[in-house]
């Protein structure tokens, strides 16, 4: 005989896989089914998953029906809540089907609810405004600014006809007094500020 020593026999136990129902004599104590290779430690949890046709994995017992009554049911009386919904009209508990109408009424009262087409005078971005914010959603600049100069316009900052700032002063080279309108003489075109400066020089 050779001097080879055999290890003592390992005790084998019969095991079965809860997933594929395979049965074997387990010698190596592996946490794995030799047929379907599923982990045996997590196989029990996998069986707790919802089976075909089951409504819920986590079922409540009859004593945990969470019964209560509140609100007004369209079928008459108060809602009779059981397992999270009304037993009469089947409305889910916590869902208010009239909440949307209430929000619309409050928006209408506050002048909202209808969308307006707006355009930003700074970046020309166009959008449908329903929140009535006084700023552009793209560039965040305020909307209440004077519009930019359009093609062909001489000035963006126009005076109203009542703001012509008309006055008469000094001797005009074209004869008579200077007739100032919008800061310059209507006859000779000299600026009102220029005349004031020359008068100061003469006086000094």
Short key terms for the protein model shown above:
204 residues; alpha+beta; three-stranded antiparallel beta sheet
What does this structure look like?
The chain starts with 12 loop residues before the first strand and ends with a helix. The protein has a three-stranded antiparallel beta sheet, with no helix packed on it. The model has no long low-confidence stretch (mean pLDDT 75). It has helices at 40-47, 99-109, 192-203, and strands at 13-16, 23-26, 68-70, 79-82, 85-86, 116-119, 126-129, 167-171, 177-181, 184-185. It is elongated, with a radius of gyration of 45 Å. It has 204 residues and is α+β, with helices and mostly antiparallel strands. Among the domains are: 13-47, no CATH class; 164-203, no CATH class.
Helix content: 10-25%
What ranges have pLDDT less than 50 throughout 5 or more consecutive residues? none
What can be said about the biggest beta sheet?
Answer: 3 strands, antiparallel
Compute the CA-based radius of gyration.
Answer: 45 Å
Helix count, DSSP H or I runs of 4 or more residues: 3
β-sheet strand percentage: 15-25%
> Order of strands across the biggest sheet?
3-4-5
Quote the distance from N terminus to C terminus: 138 Å
Shape: elongated
Biased composition (Low complexity): 63-72
Region (Disordered): 48-73
Topology of this protein?
Blueprint: E1 13-16, E2 23-26, H1 40-47, E3 68-70, E4 79-82, E5 85-86, H2 99-109, E6 116-119, E7 126-129, E8 167-171, E9 177-181, E10 184-185, H3 192-203
Biased composition (Low complexity): 63-72
Region (Disordered): 48-73
């Amino acid at each position: 005989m050779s001097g080879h020593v055999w290890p003592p026999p390992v005790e084998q136990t019969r095991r079965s896989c809860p997933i594929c129902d395979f049965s074997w004599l387990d010698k190596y104590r592996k946490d794995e089914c030799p047929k379907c290779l599923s982990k045996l430690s997590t196989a029990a949890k996998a069986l707790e998953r919802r089976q075909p046709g089951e409504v819920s994995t986590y079922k409540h017992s009859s004593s945990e029906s969470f019964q209560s009554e509140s609100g007004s049911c369209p079928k008459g009386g108060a809602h009779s809540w059981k397992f999270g919904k009304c037993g009469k009209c089947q409305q889910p508990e916590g869902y208010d089907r009239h909440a949307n109408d209430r929000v619309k009424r409050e928006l209408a009262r506050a002048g909202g609810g209808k969308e307006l087409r707006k355009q930003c005078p700074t970046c020309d971005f166009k959008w449908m405004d329903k929140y009535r914010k006084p700023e552009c959603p793209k560039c965040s600049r305020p909307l209440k600014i004077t519009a930019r100069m359009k093609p062909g316009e001489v000035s963006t900052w126009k005076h109203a006809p009542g703001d012509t700032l008309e006055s008469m002063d000094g001797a005009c080279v074209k004869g008579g007094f200077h007739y100032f309108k919008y800061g310059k003489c209507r006859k000779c075109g000299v600026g009102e500020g220029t005349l004031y400066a020359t008068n100061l020089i003469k006086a000094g």
